[in-house]
Amino acid sequence: MSRPERRNAVDGELSRGVAAALDRLDSDPGLAVGVLVGAGGTFCAGMDLKAFLAGDQPVDPDRGFGGIVGRPPEKPLCAAVEGYALAGGLEIMLACDLVVAARDAEFGLPEVKRGLTPGGGGVLRLAQRIPPAVALDILLTGDFFSAERAFELGLVTRLAEPGSALDDALDLAQRIAANAPLAVRTTKRLATNVNAASADEWDRHLAAALALMKSDDAAEGARAFAERRSPRWSGR
Description:
globular; three-stranded mixed β-sheet; 2-enoyl-CoA Hydratase, Chain A, domain 1; alpha/beta; four-stranded parallel β-sheet
């Protein structure tokens, strides 16, 4: 993901670019594993709120937000996280199979602070992977949490020294790629389908998130963030 001047905030172009890369990963028999990384020392700061206010849709028509959350690749994908993985950035990370994170990385789903709810599967995937009460603490406070905490919760697969997340992720990918391709692909499918949300759950989740994006509070949250001030909520 290469928008370092915006901390790799997600817009339509970035989503389509990631989707194209994942299409290539799935279709190219010479590729066994993917590694997703953000340019400039930050994984992803989430949806580009300025682009959102201007009417940009940060989704790919097929794979969804960030080019991944609606339809992750069939082959294994590892996230290499430095800096921040926030909001939609954390949702992108949660759509990956494995996560290597720098020890000083930070995570969070602060959508409630912007009048929104995580609309890219973050609510569903987080509640599937960690205890529900812990997931609610993260979702309802919107507070950031550390890489060490993410590792304790099982959201991060391996911790790396700062600046080494990509190297360690590539090492992990090479170890996976040394195995039988069909076995790797089949094993991923079997493992990830165990706790997969139903299509109806995804539809309800997306409908609720989209409805909230049209609210007055969502617009106010984006404006307040862009203007670096506290939001004035109306409850509408």
